[in-house]
Amino acid sequence: QVQLVESGGGLVQVGGSLRLSCAASGSIFRIRPMGWFRQAPGKQRELVAVIGVSSGGNTNYADTVKGRFTVSRDNAKNTVYLQMNSLKPEDTAVYYCYANIDFHDYWGQGTQVTVSS
């Protein structure tokens, strides 16, 4: 059984930084794209950032986080990261890790990020 376990969320002040991590475990042959989505109260889940197969793979970011957030991955650890800098109150949301593993989509349980002003 495949699991995605996230860590690194929390409360931070405006302008601060957080780093999210998400490790995949279980019966895994190959992980394709990995990334992060978020869902704020009363809003739909939205893409934050995604990274392709290789550690230096193609990345794609939501316009709202470009230049502030960086997605990366360590394939040896089956882990994806999200470095979030210059955080804003509108970044407050539950952040979900995503991975396509052996042609199936998996999601983490979500981690709360709260940016206080």
Concise structural overview:
With 117 residues, this protein is mostly beta strands. It has strands spanning 3-7, 10-13, 18-25, 31-39, 46-51, 59-61, 69-74, 79-84, 93-101, 104-107, 111-116.
**Pairing-aware structural class of the strands and helices?**
mainly beta
Oligomer: single chain
For the largest beta-sheet, the strand count, sense and barrel status come to:
7 strands, mixed
User: Based on CA inertia axes, which overall geometry fits?
Assistant: globular
Q: Can you count the helices?
A: 0
Give the strand content: over 45%
Report the C-alpha radius of gyration, rounded. 14 Å
Average pLDDT for all residues: 96
**How much helix, percentage-wise, in residues?**
under 10%
Distance between the termini: 40 Å
- The helix/strand series, from N terminus to C terminus, equals EEEEEEEEEEE
Question: How many β strands by DSSP?
Answer: 11
Low-pLDDT parts are: none
